[in-house]
Amino acid sequence: MIDYVKGTLEAIDTQYVVVDHHGLGYQLFCPNPYIYQHDLHKDIQIFTHHYVREDQIRLFGFPTRKDRALFEKLLNVSGIGPKGALAILASGQPEHVVAAIEQEDEALLIRFPGVGKKTARQIILDLKGKLVEFSAEGTSSHEPNLLSPYVEEKPDALEEAFEALRALGYVEKELKKVRPKLEEEQLEIDGYIKKALQLLLKR
């Protein structure tokens, strides 16, 4: 079990980050890789989950152990794979997910990519009453800040954000509905992603 990777953040992609540890580059798939954009070429620590299947071996990365623990609980639900669990965590508001589970709010859960009514019901059946430690999620040091300075050209940042959302499983029809609202904003990539997810989950 690899508990965490500590090293220099060398690259950020729409689905993963690359951390160099003594010349070895670790590819870590994350819910929202762009929360680390201010750490590029700096030393960071990312907590990991080593996912092993016959057809896939991957490392998934999280800013806190609590985020990783919620990812692992979601993985234990029948019908939820790594991509689906990452999409749920990408909202950056796990306490809202927990509240939806506790209140049996299927309508909110099915707004996540890949989660239908059957899977939403399974999430509730498997996890209701078992997520008390996640209900008061604190703000991590890497949580996206919607008020952070605007330093990139808006079109580039916005399009990068949409690429990340597509990687999470959102389709063009959904993205077109929230684009006008996002074009009114001046945010960095992580800010656009978080704002988009908030809008998508409200629809």
Automatic annotation (TrEMBL):
Residues 72-91, 107-126 form the Helix-hairpin-helix DNA-binding motif class domain. SUPFAM superfamilies: DNA helicase RuvA subunit, C-terminal domain (SSF46929), Nucleic acid-binding proteins (SSF50249), RuvA domain 2-like (SSF47781). Its main location: cytoplasm. Keywords: Cytoplasm, DNA damage, DNA recombination, DNA repair, DNA-binding, Hydrolase. GO terms for cellular component: cytoplasm; Holliday junction helicase complex; Holliday junction resolvase complex. SMART domains: HhH1 (SM00278). One of its GO terms (biological process) is DNA repair. One of its GO terms (molecular function) is four-way junction helicase activity. It is found in: Cytoplasm. Residues 153-203 are annotated as: Domain III. CDD domains: UBA_RuvA_C. Has three domains with a flexible linker between the domains II and III and assumes an 'L' shape. Domain III is highly mobile and contacts RuvB. Belongs to the RuvA family. Homotetramer. Forms an RuvA(8)-RuvB(12)-Holliday junction (HJ) complex. HJ DNA is sandwiched between 2 RuvA tetramers; dsDNA enters through RuvA and exits via RuvB. An RuvB hexamer assembles on each DNA strand where it exits the tetramer. Each RuvB hexamer is contacted by two RuvA subunits (via domain III) on 2 adjacent RuvB subunits; this complex drives branch migration. In the full resolvosome a probable DNA-RuvA(4)-RuvB(12)-RuvC(2) complex forms which resolves the HJ. The RuvA-RuvB-RuvC complex processes Holliday junction (HJ) DNA during genetic recombination and DNA repair, while the RuvA-RuvB complex plays an important role in the rescue of blocked DNA replication forks via replication fork reversal (RFR). RuvA specifically binds to HJ cruciform DNA, conferring on it an open structure. The RuvB hexamer acts as an ATP-dependent pump, pulling dsDNA into and through the RuvAB complex. HJ branch migration allows RuvC to scan DNA until it finds its consensus sequence, where it cleaves and resolves the cruciform DNA. This is Holliday junction branch migration complex subunit RuvA. It comes from Alkalicoccobacillus porphyridii.
